[in-house]
């Protein structure tokens, strides 16, 4: 299967691109770590594969509707 065929099929099945899917999985894992473990936002960002804690925070806020820090405080 060619890369373009895989990309099209993946998007049909998941309704998102492989990059969007990977980002969502990383952010969901980051949220789980923030809620269940006593880690800070920067450590969590690095653990789930982000090179920049600020990028992690921006994308986290975009997906969940609130910042990682606010999410920690809620739980």
Automatic annotation (TrEMBL):
What species is given as this protein's source?
Paenibacillus filicis
Q: Which Pfam families does this entry report, sorted A to Z?
A: HTH_18
Residue ranges constituting the HTH araC/xylS-type domain according to the UniProt record = 1-74
> Key word DNA-binding present in the record?
yes
Q: What is this protein called?
A: Helix-turn-helix transcriptional regulator
What are the protein's UniProt keywords? DNA-binding, Transcription, Transcription regulation
Report the superkingdom from the record: Bacteria
Q: Which Gene3D superfamilies match?
A: Homeodomain-like
In the UniProt record, does the keyword DNA-binding occur?
A: yes
């Amino acid at each position: 299967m060619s890369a373009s065929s895989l990309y099209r099929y993946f998007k049909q099945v998941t309704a998102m691109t492989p990059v969007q899917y990977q980002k969502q999985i990383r952010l969901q894992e980051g949220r789980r770590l923030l809620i269940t473990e006593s880690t800070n936002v920067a450590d969590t960002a690095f653990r789930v594969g982000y090179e920049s804690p600020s990028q992690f925070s921006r994308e986290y806020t975009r997906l969940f509707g609130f910042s990682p820090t606010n999410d920690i405080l809620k739980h």
